[in-house]
Amino acid sequence: MAEPRKAELVFIPAAGVGHLVPVVEIAKLLITQTNHISITILIMTRPSDTNILSYKKSLRESSDPRIKYIDLKPEQSEPNQPFSEFVDSHKPHAREVLSGMINSGIFKLGGMVMDMFCTIMFDVANEFGIPSYVFFPSGASMLGLSFHMQSLRDDHNVDVTDFKVSDESTTLDVPTYINPVPTKVLPSIFLDKEGRSKMFLDQVKRYREAKGIIINTFKEMETHAIEALSNDSNIPPVYAIGPLLNLKGGKVNKQQEEDESIMKWLDVQPESSVVFLCFGSGGAFDGEQVNEIAYALERSGYRFFWSLRKPTPSNNFGYPEDYENLEEVLPEGFLQRNSDVGKVIGWAPQAAILAHPAVGGFVSHCGWNSTLESVWCGVPVATWPLYAEQQVNAFLLVKELEMAVEIKMDYRKHTWQTLNLNCEDVSADVIEKGIRVVMDPDSEVRKKVKEMQEKSHSVPKEGGSSYSSMRSFIDDVMSNVI
Ligand SMILES: *[C@@H]1O[C@H](CO)[C@@H](O)[C@H](O)[C@H]1NC(C)=O
Ligand SMILES: *[C@@H]1O[C@H](CO)[C@@H](O)[C@H](O)[C@H]1NC(C)=O
Fold it and tell me: Which of 91, 109, 150, 334 has the fewest Cβ atoms within 10 Å of its own Cβ atom?
């Protein structure tokens, strides 16, 4: 019998734990499905990135021997290097590592998978004749929108950043969406005139060179978008292997005690009775907006669990922090009046709370991870996007999938960067209405999200669509080493 073929797959995540974690998750998933692939992850580290060290240590201690980690060293490193130069400066070491692997005779390189921001490494893969793939951590609709914007820019000479000032009612026909997409929900990165739009669309342009693109979604959720991508012969095959979830949350152990008290509180609330408000790692409110949310909650009469965080000043680069004293920012007496029915806390273990049966609705910023978590947990969302591609995620949930309720779809706020802001305070009336609809036990959106939840649990299993997609990806990688 011929010896079974083996292939080595090399991953290059962008710098930072946030980019490394999902790649490690894909690697683990891959090796549970095949014995023929082993994996090497090449890690770039920013000098300022200290929390990656402990994560890397934990990986090395607990890892499967089929996943190896190699630290890439930069040729030269400067503190405020633009990201593309930073990645570029790791090319020589990447070359050295790859030629070492090839010359050892042990490895047959089946491909390199680049992070969505690391397509510059395609150059290195090309030098060695190794096929390149891209990992795009968002969904199919957003990937299609990115290609569409890039095509408008490069094939039709459109300055897409001008959509920033387009008329309120302007819409675009984008193949991965059933409905026309309003320009006011476009991700701000496309609209940035300071170079970020160009930087991102240049990356997207190179995705077209890839042999395949891995996306974090599943066929049953984005059926139309995935079909539209496969219909376009200028777009590489996509592998929808999601949902990849971040169920353990961001912070480990540090606040275990507090987490336990949260769960205890939820344990005594009736099923689906609590509305949960949480706005992600970059979401924060202060001033009048906090009052409006508080009034909405009181008037709605629902039990609530609210993760409220303090914005850092916009000239001060940094993530939101917890308030030292919540009483100071909330309306007078709010906490006392509502102590039986509600809780306000700082950072929250979102996934664990969403999974709790007491939670019946989720006021969310619609980050892609949160969107997938809400589906996985079967909790309908009331949308309140803040930045990045959250507006168009809200659009997907509300209009395309009819699985969520709109509080806002075009609100924009960035706590550490003054982007094109459209963040007039959302009034208590609007918030209250959203909460009432999302908490309605018999609503259509609840029914839809429950159906999607069931599907999301079956797709990773043998025979499910994401399982099969991963199989096809494995087959493609194996076909490279014949
Ligand atoms: C999304 O989840 C992944 C883990 O699957 C995590 O590494 C990443 O940082 C999360 N992204 C955001 C924006 O929170
Ligand atoms: C994909 O192509 C088929 C065949 O031409 C067509 O019927 C279908 O509507 C297309 N789907 C999308 C989403 O574009």
Answer: 91
